Amino acid sequence: MEKVDICTASKNYSVYIGPDIIHLLSNSLAEYTKVMIITDETVSELHIGKIIEQFPELIVYTTPSGEKAKTFQIYEDCLSFALKHGLDRKSVILAFGGGAVGDLAGFVAATYMRGIPFIQIPTTILAHDSAVGGKVAINHSLGKNMVGAFYQPEMVIYDTNFLHSLPERQVRSGFAEVIKHGLIADPIFLQELMENLSSLNHLNNIQLSNYLKKGIEIKSAFVSKDEKETGIRAYLNFGHTLGHAIEAKADFGKLTHGESVMCGMVYALILSNNILGLTFDIQSFIQWIEKLGYKWRIPSYMEFDTLYELMKRDKKSTSGKPAFVLLKEIGKPMMMEVEKSLLEDTFYKLSE
Ligand SMILES: NC(=O)c1ccc[n+]([C@@H]2O[C@H](COP(=O)([O-])OP(=O)(O)OC[C@H]3O[C@@H](n4cnc5c(N)ncnc54)[C@H](O)[C@@H]3O)[C@@H](O)[C@H]2O)c1
Ligand SMILES: O=C(O)C(=O)C[C@@H](O)[C@H](O)[C@H](O)COP(=O)(O)O
Ligand SMILES: [Zn+2]
């Protein structure tokens, strides 16, 4: 088992990573009055048995799968469910699922009775990112993650056995954030990925644990210095200005988070080359991600003007202009507002 310690201004906690570690929960739950688990329909069907057999007294709330979990309606329903089952301030919420469940459950925990503890039990590759760092949120029809909080979990139990049932599309989606971590912080890690990884279908447990651990360590370095995104934490948003706009335009769910962020990262790489003279070989990068099965062109049914309005509303924007994380070099990010004309030109180069 691997362990990464996360130190933030508000809380220190550990992320445990490895196969067969779900039993770690037993020691952690004794202190709580009630335990409510929030999961989704898919994860429930596949894996909830492994938790229930250890803790038959759990109170289970099941959301629709995917982004449909991150709505006001489901959020309110979770709160009602918790109230009806008598959760109090010494109760705990378990987030058992991918990033959607984690973001929802964390926001429920952050706001129920002004905040009760929660534990992340991620089940997707993407959740190496979402389960760490304490960003919790639901979506608004006008934008992604627009209602949320910074609220850290008590611990993260990342049992990699749960990952074996992930469909290929979700493996690819999650791996986009691993690649993001390489691009923003670690040229050597990125190079290692580009040289050694020609398919996402045959990742063995050791490779996977190593990549996830590396991603978590990179994320941890940003979060520990800037928990509430007053500065460098925003670099973790590389690819997300356009990515979140694409997700919103795809009705929150037709494209996955990782698919959308991959389009956004290619867009941000081209902008970085145009504005900052980034010398990275973007064509080789594109060939590599295509080999891994990623689509990187902006879907043809998306119009620039709609995406531009969404990008202007992004949380990083403070002056009404879209703000982007760009790269001076691989591993050297910076934040910039970008002019509409350049955004539009680049959009047409990358549109399908
Ligand atoms: N809080 C953060 O810092 C942060 C970081 C990155 C992403 N996010 C958010 O995370 C969400 C994306 O996370 P995600 O990709 O995990 O999505 P997700 O939670 O929607 O899961 C993707 C799909 O995989 C299914 N699934 C989950 N675990 C499975 C398993 N073990 N086997 C088979 N199927 C499984 C789910 O039911 C769902 O249909 C987005 O809402 C994004 O905004 C948050
Ligand atoms: O943890 C962060 O900070 C990130 O930006 C990680 C992102 O991968 C993640 O998608 C996050 O939820 C985006 O946050 P937002 O503030 O842009 O909603
Ligand atoms: Zn993300």
Automatic annotation (TrEMBL):
<keyword id="KW-0479">Metal-binding</keyword>
<dbReference type="Pfam" id="PF01761">
    <property type="entry name" value="DHQ_synthase"/>
</dbReference>
<keyword id="KW-0547">Nucleotide-binding</keyword>
<comment type="pathway">
    <text>Metabolic intermediate biosynthesis; chorismate biosynthesis; chorismate from D-erythrose 4-phosphate and phosphoenolpyruvate: step 2/7.</text>
</comment>
<feature type="binding site">
    <location>
        <position position="144"/>
    </location>
    <ligand>
        <name>NAD(+)</name>
    </ligand>
</feature>
<keyword id="KW-0963">Cytoplasm</keyword>
<keyword id="KW-0170">Cobalt</keyword>
<keyword id="KW-0862">Zinc</keyword>
<feature type="binding site">
    <location>
        <position position="135"/>
    </location>
    <ligand>
        <name>NAD(+)</name>
    </ligand>
</feature>
<dbReference type="InterPro" id="IPR050071">
    <property type="entry name" value="Dehydroquinate_synthase"/>
</dbReference>
<dbReference type="InterPro" id="IPR016037">
    <property type="entry name" value="DHQ_synth_AroB"/>
</dbReference>
<protein>
    <recommendedName>
        <fullName>3-dehydroquinate synthase</fullName>
        <ecNumber>4.2.3.4</ecNumber>
    </recommendedName>
</protein>
<dbReference type="InterPro" id="IPR030963">
    <property type="entry name" value="DHQ_synth_fam"/>
</dbReference>
<keyword id="KW-0028">Amino-acid biosynthesis</keyword>
<dbReference type="Pfam" id="PF24621">
    <property type="entry name" value="DHQS_C"/>
</dbReference>
<feature type="domain" description="3-dehydroquinate synthase N-terminal">
    <location>
        <begin position="62"/>
        <end position="172"/>
    </location>
</feature>
<feature type="binding site">
    <location>
        <begin position="123"/>
        <end position="124"/>
    </location>
    <ligand>
        <name>NAD(+)</name>
    </ligand>
</feature>
<feature type="binding site">
    <location>
        <position position="177"/>
    </location>
    <ligand>
        <name>Zn(2+)</name>
    </ligand>
</feature>
<keyword id="KW-0057">Aromatic amino acid biosynthesis</keyword>
<feature type="binding site">
    <location>
        <begin position="65"/>
        <end position="70"/>
    </location>
    <ligand>
        <name>NAD(+)</name>
    </ligand>
</feature>
<feature type="domain" description="3-dehydroquinate synthase C-terminal">
    <location>
        <begin position="174"/>
        <end position="317"/>
    </location>
</feature>
<comment type="similarity">
    <text>Belongs to the sugar phosphate cyclases superfamily. Dehydroquinate synthase family.</text>
</comment>
<feature type="binding site">
    <location>
        <begin position="99"/>
        <end position="103"/>
    </location>
    <ligand>
        <name>NAD(+)</name>
    </ligand>
</feature>
<feature type="binding site">
    <location>
        <position position="240"/>
    </location>
    <ligand>
        <name>Zn(2+)</name>
    </ligand>
</feature>
<feature type="binding site">
    <location>
        <position position="257"/>
    </location>
    <ligand>
        <name>Zn(2+)</name>
    </ligand>
</feature>
<dbReference type="GO" id="GO:0003856">
    <property type="term" value="F:3-dehydroquinate synthase activity"/>
</dbReference>
<keyword id="KW-0456">Lyase</keyword>
<keyword id="KW-0520">NAD</keyword>
<dbReference type="InterPro" id="IPR056179">
    <property type="entry name" value="DHQS_C"/>
</dbReference>
<dbReference type="InterPro" id="IPR030960">
    <property type="entry name" value="DHQS/DOIS_N"/>
</dbReference>
<comment type="function">
    <text>Catalyzes the conversion of 3-deoxy-D-arabino-heptulosonate 7-phosphate (DAHP) to dehydroquinate (DHQ).</text>
</comment>
